[in-house]
Fold:
Amino acid sequence: MPLLSHAPHPAWQRLADADPAAFFPHNLEYSCPARGNWNIVHTGMLVPEAHQIYVCASGCLRGVILTAAEMGETYRRRFSTVELLERDLLLTDNEQLLIDGVTDILEKLKKNQGLPPAVLLFTACFHHFIGTDLSYVYSKLRKRWPGIDFAECCMDPIRQSKSLKPEERLRLEIARLWPEQSATPKRAVCFGSNLPLSKDSEIYALCRAAGWELLDWAACQTYADFQQPGSASLYIWQHPHTFPAIRWLTENREHKAIYLPQVWRSEELLQEFTELADELGLALPDFAPAQERALKAWQELGKELGSLPITLDYTFTLEPFSLARLLIEQGFRLVRIYADAVSPETREDFLWLQEHAPDIELWSAKHPDLRLSENRTLPGKSLALGQKAAYYTGTPYFVDIIDGAGITGWAGQERLARIISEAARSPKDTQSLIARKGWGGPCALED
Amino acid sequence: MKQTARIISTYSADNFGVCSALYEMGGLIVMHDPSGCNSTYTTHDEPRWYSRDSLIYISALTEQDAVLGRDQRLIEEICDVALTHKPRFICVIPSQIAFLIGTDLKAICRLIEKRTGITSFTLPTNSMHYYEQGIYYGLEELARRVIQHTGQAVSHNPPKLQLRLNLLGVTPLDFGPDGWLPAWKTWLRQNNFHLQSCWAMNSSLDEILRSGSADVNLVASYGGLGAARLLWRELGQPYVCGLPLGPLAPTLAQAIQKAGETKQPLLPYAEQTSCIPANAPKQFIIGETILAESLAAALELSGAGHFRAIIPVETDNELLRSDSLRLTDECELEPVLKDAKTIIADPLYQAICPASAHFLRLPHMGFSGRLYQKELSNLLQDFPDLLHRLPT
Structure:
């Protein structure tokens, strides 16, 4: 049964009644104060030693500058800006402003801290609208700074609904930084996720068993290290924003790729690992003991939590509906999901949930009515999986994780079950934890 | 101006200044901008966001909306939310792209007002100016409402036992999460002033609408200047600019009394500028105009020598002492600061200051957001500490 703690409300509906093509109509958007998600600044910092330069108006620059500043001194020094002013809309040669601005910054870097090996240059919605000739800009910059790799990034959220999202474009441009090189046999690379794949993932075990080296782009420490992923013979990717980069790599370079979405159910995991084993030229090992251990961990957790209401938001894992189905199948009392869309990969899970758990409340994560606290909290003790669910339901009992914390596989699930158990017992300071940007990354905010 | 910043931050933007100024007024504020852009304000510039509800949203403008002129969607969505939540007013402010394509937000607001019956207006932001400009616009708009309200209201002024003050230009962006309000109240009480309203923290819209009966407006930041000028021109309320810091406090209190009598605006900190010896050490304060200028005057009165204010955000010549500088870019600031003996500024400026200078950290939310929130000073009470931290 749904909790029905509120009268029917435009911010939520029964999951059974939701249209998977569009859960909620377009509306004004509320920005909830949970900040653990990574943004393009955090992701760009995964390219070691690279310098990010953003060219935009102050309103846009402020968020990215302070993202870098909150990552700490080392990261702040890898970030610069060119600020667009009102006169630049009409009176300025914006190609020249870009070239001169980037040049000025690089001259100062040369003098103060040395030139970076790569620059991630972010132009904005503004450049798109006024038709700035970016090809000219980059050709001039590359000629002027031959030792620097330039990545042609964009911070243009106005285009994200019908074109590449800034996060997708960033990953594509990062992939393009890799020079063309022949594929190194038996070298696989996890590419595109913000958080490194957890070391206990069976993906590592499979690669080891097949005699493959498995690198993770999110763990590179130097720009020289960062070149190694460019020579992979197999890219393993999980983050949906990686697709344009993978398409480019497979179409333009002789590399293979395998998509292993962050699914949670045993059947789905087994299917993914079978595909990976085939790709690695390995007979699938016997994973039954690992599956049984994970199942036992979930069952023990189920006994411990009993009928405690659980809520889940889309930031907790890359594939929330897969996890939701696992939880329902294991008998947990999942009462709410906060999400505004379902991925094609987990549409089947969503349809299954509509049939088998129709009364789950499906809440928007950005509906304007959520601004008012009386519209959103969940009375009594509940456990939230994810920061937004914790904020919206008003619970201090929550699992503070973003993007599944890099967990994929049964060993990770065993660990996650322990984390959830601990979270259900120990209240947290929700406000201070969810205020931090870029969960799992560096943070210089004072405690 | 090269418009580049190798290392320093940028100040909060005009649209965020509007949101900050009107946050507690019970209105519906919509930034007409793409999805995601409002998290900047709600993360870095608005310490009230977690614990205090305010109807501030983003329109989630898309490229198709912009190219095809789909304003109808915006109107319908605002009307839906407004009719559900019944805000006191509706304010729709453009960001860069809406400004660039010339969205007619005045017309849109007229349509919204007609459909909802709720007062609706826009303000000329574009996210290419700084927050002080936005606060200025927001509070000036409040002043227009006060003038309308005062014109209609029957005056029931209590006997004038003490001067009644409105405090103009107080937001977390300049004064931190509590607006220094406890310290303001203490100082006002000690000087026998009555706080009629604070624009715009801890006073309701109704309290502000009734503030036309105050005797003097005390302008605490540039953002309050537009409202002060309008109220002086239309209602004859005089204004005084300044902060009661250290030894400047009695001078400010006297100026308020004098303004109450003469009905003329006063700028008491400007009168404190001493003769500057040619070989005086170079000492600078970087920050918002009224804070930087008041602090400079207070430090001089304390015997700390002459301080020159550098104002990187919007300001007005009326507010500046004679040798103040208006500089924003790193390339303009670095040469000026290179021989400095003392610099008082937000910690994010330190990277461009010479190592030989004595640098006093004075975190400013309008610049570094929440990064140094726990280190924010309330100079009404912390002025002696700051003075103590200066080199002897």
